[in-house]
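Moderator note: this is an archived Q&A kept for reference. The question asked for a predicted structure of one protein chain; the sequence and the answer are reproduced below.
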Amino acid sequence: MTPPPRTAAVSETTTDSSDNTTTSPWKPTWSPGHTRPGLPPLTVVHDPHDDHAFMAAALAAHTPQVGRITVHPTPVASAPASLAHDLLRSMGKHLPLAGSEDGTYWTGNTETAWRALAAWTLALRTGHLIVTRAHRISSRHFEYLFALRELTRIRLTLLCHGPLPPALAPALATLRYEEAHTLAAAHRAFTTPDPPPPTGRFAWWEAGEQFPPREGEPGFLLPTRRTPGRGVIEAAARRLGRAVLPLPAAGRFPPEPDEPTALLAHRLHTRIAHPVHAAALAVRVFTGCPATQLQLPAAHTAPPALPNRGPEHPAPTWAVDLIEAARCFGQLEGRQPSARPLRLSPWDQTAVTEAAHACGLHEHQAPVTKRHSAATTSRSGRPAAALRGVGSTPTPSRAA
C-alpha cells in the first residue's frame, strides 16, 4: 500500500499554544531555542581547503527519486527569495521566463517562494536536503532553511568549503548536530539511507531537459469531451507551425500515461513552479472543466464529474503529486481544505494561461465552416439537437 504524503507536518505547524488548529499562514521564520523534538540532527560537513572531491560527492548524491536533493546556491545571490528559487530548480521546478508578469511576481515575493518550496518538499516526499557553499549563506537564509526543516522534518546537511560562517554559530549552540571532517565521513553523511519511497509514483525526475521550451517542439490541444479527429490535429499543426500530439479526451485519461501524455506531464512538473498553477492546469487537462469550475480532487479519488457524464476515474498518476502540492500550499497559506471550486484570482488565471503556453498547450480553434454548415442544416428541416421530438426531456444547460 502506498503510504500517504507527509502532509501532517503542515497542520502541526498551524497550531497555537493550546494545540488548537488555526488558519494563520505559515511564515519561514525560526529562532534558536525553538526546535521541535524528534527532528533528524543537523549535519555540518567541513571542507576547509575547498577540495573539489567534497563538492563532487555532494553533487553525486543528488537523487530525487529517493528523496535526496542537492542544491548549489547561486553565488552572491542575497535576495530573500533567491535560495528558495535555487532549491526549486534543484527539484526540477523552473520559474517563469524573465520578463513575464508571473516571473516578475516571483522575484519579489519571498513568502510565496518559500511556501511553494515547502509544498513541493512535502508532496514530492523529499527527505534529505544537501546545501553546498553553505559558508556563504546569509543569516536570513539560514533562518529560512531551519524554518523549512522544522516544517517538513527533512534531514539537512550543510557543506562548508571554508571556516564556518558566524551566522551559523547561534544555531549550532542550540541544535543537535553532527560533524564530518573527512571525505569518507562526508560520503556517509551525503548518502544516509532514508525510508524507501512509495511505489507506483509518476517518475517526474525523468523529465530531462524540458526547460526552457525549445523552438518548434511538439504541442498539444487542450482536451475536450471528444477526442479530436486526425483532421482536427492536422489543421492545428498547420495553424501552429509545429507537430501536435494527441491526448485522450477529457475525463478519459487512463491511470498511467501514454507517451504523449507523459511528455506533457513532464512539462507540467518542470515548467510550473507554483503548485496551485501546476495543479489547476493539470486538472483542466484531465477533466476539461473551465477555470471557473476547477476544484482539486483528492489525489486518489475521482475528480468532479463533467456535466452530463457519469462518474470519473481517479486522478491519473502523473497529476497526483501536483494536486497534493497544491493542497499543501493552500494549507500553508492558511486556507482550510475545501471541496469548493478552486478559487483563482485574475493574476492566478493569467499565470495559468502563461503556464499553458510554456507547456505547449493550445485551445481548439472553432471551425467557422462547421458552424455555418450546422446553421444551414437546421434551416433545411432536420430537427435541431435541442428539438428532439415532442415530449422529450430538454438537455439541461451548463452552469455558468
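Archived answer notes: The first strand starts at residue 42 and ends at 46.
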